[in-house]
């Protein structure tokens, strides 16, 4: 049966409209001509009128588009496609009130359409209505949280199917160019894949598209902290703190940035304000305790930690923070409470978790203070075993890396490299093992009028890690070839990068500053290549005392070798071997401070140390405990009192259980402070 003429005509018009729509993005001029032809044939036809407006806007004629779309929207006030196009034409024409009105109506009609909210936010921001724009961005994020495509991509990411998630989001980005939620999610995928640069670029792009995207800004701050870009992290944390949606988590992340910058007072003020609003927050009490401890306000720190464990008795880190205040002794009631906390954790299936190992370290310290050495050692052992199971440390691989460094920085190699690097004499590196007296040396030197103490700075390790990644990625066959490739200009640039990146930690204007990252002993050769005038001080302590002290100390981060007596003994051997090799290759470049000699003859040792640094002797360096600077390390309380000798041979109380450590150290024990010939 033949179609009726009217039906045939209607189908013809639909075909013509569809054809015009297909030309919009590639040939808007053809789309416009087709739509106008349809209107001449049919009179008023809403789809064709909409096509005219769309084509005119794409041809760069937003005012003409607006003239056609305005009447159409009045005739069809509830058609989302018309409102969407009208809003964009009005925005492009500079008619912001009209664009905002259209988008507000659109988002009321379709609150689940994220794109409408994000477009409204941009229009509001252009009109100077920043607070309203921020809220519109947040509404867009909320709407996007129910987007099926994003949910599927997030599920793939969380299940470890990163390539699949990335492919989904890449396809989506080709369809939706300005997509804040998809862009942020893709940034997280790149971060999980280990591509930090791509992650940063994508998350920053998401914030360019939607500055009110609080969760994206929170994520960006965390990425910036991981990259040690502290000023940028602070700037973003200050923006986040102004969010119209009050979230205490944003205050906490700002406080964490301030802590990293050394502003313990600023962080404390945030924690105290949050606790005034809600005092039942053990994590915030603990954070406050950390800041107060660093500031030397021990009594206040103890109160804060006590509040934390009162609110949550199983909070292992807070108990360890109390125990780790070396001048605090936990009593019998504390021991009973911690034992009960361990039982509670075991009942809840958390007997091997972080709270548990912190509690074992705390009980070890409590029993040690009571001179119950066997019980103390048992708890230290349990804590170390639990912690060791959670981390990765390959002693053989680490020894190979140290051997490669020793084989690289030989006297002939250094002579071949010649002069170069950044000539700044400002940095003073204190290196060695943790618990070797480096905080004491730092406190002595930072009491000098010409020296500023900062903290354990990560910048040199970041530079070294970046160089090592070039070997890992196959750019160079080995470590030596990579170092040899560094030109004088390269070395100067790297040295200048270090000086510039650490500037944020220098607050006093003093000409010299201390970087007390102990692990930098691994990079003494690199330090001297890129900062030839920097001073390097090796703080060294008896191997048994140093290693045992580190083994019974739980570190917040970065010391993965310290949770096994054999591992830490090997680590000490590697350290001594590399330093001895560098002493042979570049005699006099590293100054060694022997802890026991510093304790026995403080004035003489300080005088010689200052002479090495080219500094005049100052009495304040002897009365270092009066220095009120913030100290963040485990020795913070010990360096706030005069030097005492009781810790020198303390390890001998535990010697019956330290055979694995002594075996790992071998001849280093008897040779100390000298180095065995082999």
TrEMBL record:
Keyword line: TPR repeat, Transferase
Domain of life: Bacteria
InterPro entries recorded: P-loop_NTPase, TPR-like_helical_dom_sf, TPR_rpt, TPST-like
TPR repeat residue numbers: 282-315
Keyword Transferase: yes
Cited Gene3D superfamilies: P-loop containing nucleotide triphosphate hydrolases, Tetratricopeptide repeat domain
Keyword Cell division: no
Pfam family, one: Sulfotransfer_3
Coiled coil feature spans: none
Protein name: Sulfotransferase
The organism of origin for this protein: Sphingobium olei
């Amino acid at each position: 049966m033949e179609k009726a003429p009217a039906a045939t005509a209607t189908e013809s018009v639909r075909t013509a409209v569809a054809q015009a729509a297909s030309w919009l993005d590639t040939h808007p001029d053809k789309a416009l001509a087709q739509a106008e032809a349809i209107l001449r044939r049919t009179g008023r036809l809403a789809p064709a009128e909409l096509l005219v407006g769309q084509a005119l806007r794409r041809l760069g004629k937003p005012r003409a588009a607006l003239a056609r779309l305005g009447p159409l929207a009045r005739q069809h006030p509830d058609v989302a496609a018309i409102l969407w196009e009208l809003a964009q034409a009005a925005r492009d024409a500079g008619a912001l009130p009209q664009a905002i009105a259209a988008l507000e109506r659109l988002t009321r009609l379709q609150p689940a359409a994220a794109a409408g909210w994000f477009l409204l936010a941009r229009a509001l921001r252009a009109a100077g209505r920043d607070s309203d724009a921020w809220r519109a961005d947040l509404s867009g994020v909320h709407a996007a949280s129910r987007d099926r495509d994003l949910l599927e991509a997030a599920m793939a990411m969380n299940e470890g199917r990163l390539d699949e998630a990335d492919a989904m989001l890449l396809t989506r980005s080709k369809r939706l160019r300005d997509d804040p939620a998809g862009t942020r999610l893709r940034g997280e995928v790149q971060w999980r894949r280990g591509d930090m640069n791509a992650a940063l670029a994508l998350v920053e792009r998401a914030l360019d598209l939607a500055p009110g995207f609080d969760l994206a800004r929170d994520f960006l701050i965390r990425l910036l902290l991981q990259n040690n870009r502290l000023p940028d992290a602070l700037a973003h944390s200050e923006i986040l703190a102004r969010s119209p949606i009050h979230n205490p988590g944003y205050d906490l992340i700002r406080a964490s940035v301030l802590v990293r910058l050394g502003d313990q007072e600023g962080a404390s003020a945030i924690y105290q304000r949050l606790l005034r609003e809600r005092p039942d927050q053990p994590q915030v009490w603990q954070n406050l305790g950390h800041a107060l401890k660093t500031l030397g306000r021990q009594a206040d720190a103890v109160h804060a930690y006590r509040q934390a464990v009162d609110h949550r008795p199983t909070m292992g880190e807070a108990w360890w923070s109390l125990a780790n205040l070396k001048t605090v002794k936990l009593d019998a009631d504390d021991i009973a409470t911690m034992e009960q906390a361990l039982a509670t954790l075991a009942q809840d299936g958390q007997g091997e978790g972080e709270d548990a190992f912190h509690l074992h370290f705390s009980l070890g310290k409590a029993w040690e203070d009571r001179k119950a050495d066997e019980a103390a050692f048992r708890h230290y052992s349990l804590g170390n075993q639990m912690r060791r199971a959670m981390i990765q440390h390959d002693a053989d691989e680490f020894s190979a890396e140290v051997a490669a460094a020793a084989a690289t920085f030989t006297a002939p190699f250094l002579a071949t490299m010649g002069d170069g690097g950044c000539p700044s004499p400002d940095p003073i590196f204190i290196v060695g093992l943790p618990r070797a007296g480096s905080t004491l040396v730092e406190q002595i030197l930072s009491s000098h009028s010409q020296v500023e103490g900062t903290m354990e700075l990560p910048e040199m390790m970041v530079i070294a890690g970046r160089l090592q990644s070039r070997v890992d990625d196959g750019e160079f066959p080995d470590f030596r070839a990579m170092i040899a490739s560094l030109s004088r200009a390269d070395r100067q640039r790297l040295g200048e990068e270090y000086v510039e990146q650490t500037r944020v930690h220098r607050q006093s204007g003093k000409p010299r500053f201390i970087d007390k990252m102990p692990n930098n002993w691994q990079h003494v050769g690199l330090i001297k290549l890129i900062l030839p005038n920097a001073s390097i001080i090796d703080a060294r302590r008896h191997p048994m005392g140093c290693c045992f002290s580190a083994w019974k100390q739980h570190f917040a981060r970065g010391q993965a070798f310290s949770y096994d007596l054999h591992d830490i003994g090997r680590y000490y051997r590697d350290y001594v071997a590399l330093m001895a090799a560098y002493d042979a290759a570049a005699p006099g470049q590293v100054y060694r401070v022997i802890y026991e000699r510093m304790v026995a003859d403080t004035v003489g040792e300080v005088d010689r140390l200052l002479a090495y640094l080219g500094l005049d002797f100052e009495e304040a360096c002897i009365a270092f405990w009066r220095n009120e600077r913030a100290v963040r390390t485990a020795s913070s309380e010990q360096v706030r009192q005069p030097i005492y000798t009781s810790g020198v041979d303390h390890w001998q109380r535990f010697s019956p259980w330290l055979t694995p450590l002594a075996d790992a150290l071998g001849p280093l024990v008897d040779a100390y402070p000298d180095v065995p010939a082999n």
